[in-house]
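Hi R.,

Here's the input for the shikimate-3-phosphate complex you asked about:
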Amino acid sequence: MRRRFDPSGRLRGTLAAPADKSLSHRAALLAAMTSDPVRVTGYLDAADTNSTLAAVQALGALVDRRPGALTIRGTGLRAAAPAAGVIDVGNAGTLMRLLPGWLAGQPGGSWTLDGDDSIRRRPVDRIAEPLRRMGAHLVAREGRFAPFTVTGSPLRSIEYALPVASAQIKSCVLLAGLLASGETSVIEPEPSRDHTERLLLRCGVTVTRDGPRIAVCPQDELELGDLHLPGDPSSAAFHVAAAVLVRGSRIVIEDMAANWTRVGFLRIVERMGGVLLGELEPHGAPLSPEEPVTELDVAHGGLVGTTVDAAEVPLAIDELPLVALLGCFAEGETVVRGAQELRVKETDRIATVVDGLRGLGAEIEATEDGFAVQGTGGLRGGTIASHGDHRLAMLGAVAGLASREGVVVDGMEAAAVSYPGFEADLAALGGR
Ligand code: S3P
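And here is the predicted structure with shikimate-3-phosphate in place:
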């Protein structure tokens, strides 16, 4: 599906932040691991998170979807059933990396996980390694790709130093730790999103964080209670970028998660000169079962280039393509480094972002672990391919609004992976 996004007049209005993908995946998985029904409001109705609902149903959970809310009746922590089968994770990397943590600790069960062409190119050795150390059996195609089979076993506890700052690997090990013989811990090279830790606290699990070390104790059962999920800062980021780039814009985004580990992009935008008002969680807040929420006021601002280093990367990982776009409009150079993880996202986002933006007239170079953009104060426009990557499709749309000649996005349908209402929301702000 090709869509054209013309240069836009100022954006105005108020938007409820779109539902959060990371929180929705975790809410469905943890609800499936409890035995009392869990009512969830704010669950994301999109391709990725529908894959997670289908997966938990395939494992025996019951899902009752009503407008505005869904109720999940889980199987209990140690009762994933039926004890064999194929699970289709679709395009969802988070589902593919988190679910095996639970399955690995279900002796007597064996499940094969597979997904679309993009998922088959994304590595799972990163979770296989710690799970095997815990005693799990995981056999993957070529040792590191889907389809792969997890056979449940009794698990022993480990302390695992993560080789990369990844919330998915961290979460996988912590979930497996619930079923292990003793305290299981991970050590993060840099902080990454902490939704799993917060939700586990809500489930009554003993979770401790001591500097970079996070530990969980094994559990007999989980009790979650009802959940309201706040909106997604990564999806809202597209509107934030549009409002910052399009002259005269001023928008308000309501009910957005303000978790410090999720709003690194907003700190980068502020540093570059975008005007933001809203209460974000401060650095160093104690680990809490709550997700802080904010209302964010965003206005256009003249931008200057910036440098994003490795420590900031996990806190803005999915928004780094937008940093490249902002860099095109900034004065001076914008550099992102220490972001080699971008190469194993839905596409190789260093290659696809650099090629895509260059095709629109940007002066941008790829590096091994990021990119460097020379700001020219604007962007010509042209055609960009999404390559089936939702964030690339939405990047193209925002680029179009801020460009001189407009942008055609080839493969706009990919946005439905995380944000089916994206075009309608953008239009409501005046951006079409
Ligand atoms: C996610 C973690 C990040 C992010 C992904 C969602 C999560 O991946 O890119 O979109 O929900 O845990 P990594 O953990 O691989 O960095």
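One thing worth noting: The first strand starts at residue 2 and ends at 5.

Cheers,
M.
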